[in-house]
């Protein structure tokens, strides 16, 4: 099921970048959940291109149409289909791509795998595919909020190229703070420096990458299904299925390799009172142990590469194996995809949480009554 994510809460995305429409079928959302279509649209607005001087100028309203699964704003328990029509396709910008393999893009591998590809607009490899994921994330959030009001999922741009944000307490960052700047970085000093790096790359006809942090608070204990559907394994799959992602960390991630066990272990603590929670004194594990959430904040970090589309001539080959010098015709790319990827990361995190929450309700229904 390569176009479907999840087992109990399932999101199937459909559509190509230059086809008629893109979107998602969201299956498994329980009946009787109030769904606010305006809130789903707000999520899509955070994802869409043309939202600031830092993103692709492709002008897409990305207006949602909800085709099924709702009556009077209430879920029916049936598949929810959300569709967005493609409006601003400029296939002429892709006419030179029919036989050329763009370096570090999906053209070569897609053609080798399927023997055919949607050369116009990049097909399913285009970031337009993520519209369906963001619609799924928006539904997942409204479903989860109805069941776990204290849950929060917040992502932000943590670094661009070598500029790193400084955040004192990752668990205190709010979406409101993140949305204050077009860069979606809550450290305003770092955000300014990141903006300069992005605009310089844009001027140079180049691109830059970076990292996104995602923090989940209020997650119940017990989410995650060992052994193959451990919570961090599903987060990793969710994040690494986003276009342009190259790395994933949970907790302190790769930095753990430099510590000793005595420095890394998260000691359990409790006040000893009857209803007191068992917590950990530190959170190097990032809220997941043995593949199961332990009630501490879940800490994720995702690396995005500098995207392939740049406006410098690049050596490549065509389908006849002839060497060609390739330079795209027009400037409709994101010199840095990080700001637009923030709602995509949050959406994938929410889809994983929605799926695992429903799975855990099935495992231990009594504790959620
Ligand atoms: C928000 C966003 C926008 C993107 N825009 C572009 C773009 O304009 N040009 C490009 O080459 N890649 C862009 N990408 C990345 C490609 O979709 C991706 O690199 C390509 O499908 C190859 O997949 P891979 O990088 O995961 O191997 C974008 C990714 C995201 C998340």
Based on the model shown, name its key terms:
Chorismate synthase, AroC fold, 369 residues
Task: Give a verbal description of the structure.
The protein has 369 residues and is an alpha+beta fold. The chain has a single domain (4-251, 286-368), classed as 4-Layer Sandwich (Chorismate synthase, AroC fold). It is built from eight helices and 18 strands. It has a five-stranded antiparallel β-sheet, covered by helices on one side. It has a five-stranded antiparallel β-sheet with strand order 9-8-10-16-11. Strand 1 and strand 2 (10-14) form a beta hairpin. The longest helix has 26 residues, at 338-363. Flavin mononucleotide binds at residues 56, 105-106, 125-127, 242-244, 305, 307-309, 333-334, 337, 340-341.
H/E series, N to C?
Answer: EEEHEEEEHHEEHHEHEHEEEEEEEH
Q: What is the correct CATH architecture?
A: 4-Layer Sandwich
Record the strand order, biggest sheet: 1-2-3-7-4
Low-confidence stretches: none
> How far apart are the first and last residues' alpha carbons, in Å?
33 Å
What's the CATH topology label? Chorismate synthase, AroC fold
Small-molecule binders: flavin mononucleotide
- Inertia-based shape: globular
Structural domain count: 1
Q: Give the helix level as a range of percent.
A: 25-40%
CATH secondary-structure class = Alpha Beta
Beta percentage is 15-25%
Mean pLDDT: 94
Question: Using only CA atoms, what is the Rg?
Answer: 21 Å
Tally of extended strands? 18
Structural class: alpha+beta
The CATH superfamily is: Chorismate synthase AroC
Largest sheet: 5 strands, antiparallel
Number of helices: 8
């Amino acid at each position: 099921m390569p176009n479907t994510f999840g087992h109990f809460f399932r999101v199937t995305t459909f559509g190509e970048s230059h086809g008629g429409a893109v979107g998602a079928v969201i299956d498994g959302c329980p009946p009787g959940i109030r769904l606010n279509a305006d809130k789903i649209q707000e999520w899509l607005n955070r994802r869409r291109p043309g939202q600031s001087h830092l993103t692709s100028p492709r002008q897409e309203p990305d207006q949602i149409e909800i085709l099924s699964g709702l009556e009077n704003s209430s879920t029916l328990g049936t598949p929810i289909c959300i569709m967005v029509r493609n409006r601003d396709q400029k296939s002429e910008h892709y006419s030179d791509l029919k036989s050329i393999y763009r370096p570090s893009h999906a053209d070569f591998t897609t053609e080798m795998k399927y023997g055919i590809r949607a050369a116009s607009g990049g097909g399913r490899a285009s970031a337009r595919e993520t519209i369906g994921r963001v619609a799924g994330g928006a539904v997942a959030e409204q479903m989860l909020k109805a069941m776990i009001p204290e849950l929060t999922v917040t992502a932000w741009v943590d670094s661009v190229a070598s500029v790193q944000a400084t955040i004192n307490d990752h668990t205190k960052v709010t979406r409101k703070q993140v949305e204050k700047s077009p860069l979606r970085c809550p450290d305003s000093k770092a955000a300014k420096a990141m903006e300069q790096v992005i605009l310089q790359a844009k001027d140079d006809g180049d691109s830059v990458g970076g990292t996104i942090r995602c923090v989940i608070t209020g997650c119940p204990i017990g989410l995650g299904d060992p052994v193959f559907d451990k919570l961090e394994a599903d987060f990793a799959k969710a994040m690494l299925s986003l276009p342009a992602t190259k790395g994933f960390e949970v907790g302190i991630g790769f930095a753990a390799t430099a510590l000793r066990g005595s420095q890394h272990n998260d000691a359990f603590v409790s006040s000893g009172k009857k209803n007191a929670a068992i917590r950990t004194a530190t959170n190097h594990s990032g809220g997941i142990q043995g593949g199961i959430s332990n009630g501490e904040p879940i800490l994720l970090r995702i690396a995005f590469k500098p995207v392939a589309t740049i406006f410098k001539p690049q050596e490549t080959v065509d389908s006849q194996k002839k060497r060609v010098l390739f330079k795209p015709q027009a400037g409709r790319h994101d010199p840095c995809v990080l700001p637009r990827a923030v709602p995509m990361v949050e959406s994938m995190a929410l889809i994983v949480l929605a799926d695992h929450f429903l799975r855990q309700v099935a495992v231990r229904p009594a504790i959620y009554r």
